[in-house]
Amino acid sequence: MTDVRPCFAAFHVDDLEASVRFYRDGLGVALNRNEDPVHEEISWHDPYFHFALFPKEAPREPALGLFVEDLDAAHERLVAMGATVDREPYVAPWGREARYLDPDGNLVSLTERKTHHTRGQ
User: Fold this and answer.
1) What integer best gives the mean pLDDT of the chain?
2) 51, 42 in Cβ contact below 8 A?
3) First CA to last CA across the chain, in angstroms?
4) What is the reported pLDDT for 94?
5) H or E element at residue 52
6) What's the whole-model pTM score?
């Protein structure tokens, strides 16, 4: 299996302002407002990790994002074991990505960073 590490986590919350107070004021996470759609977020670099809070009614976003070394191999493994594919592999500005539903219906994204793929896309 390839090297996998988390790069994204998002929570859909009942009360966005209460959650912002918990993470920002209680834990010191310097969240920033984003209006498209309305949510709070922060990104760290070296290594990259993005955290976001969305209101429950916001469009569905992945709950967890993982960096993988080889998206095609991971995709083949997941399909072979019967995983539900939410979005087939595609090219995003940050690298190749695909989305799947875990056994409980949580949306999980896999991203192969640009530096790791050589498929000429």
Assistant:
1) 89
2) yes
3) 24
4) 83
5) strand 49-55
6) 0.78
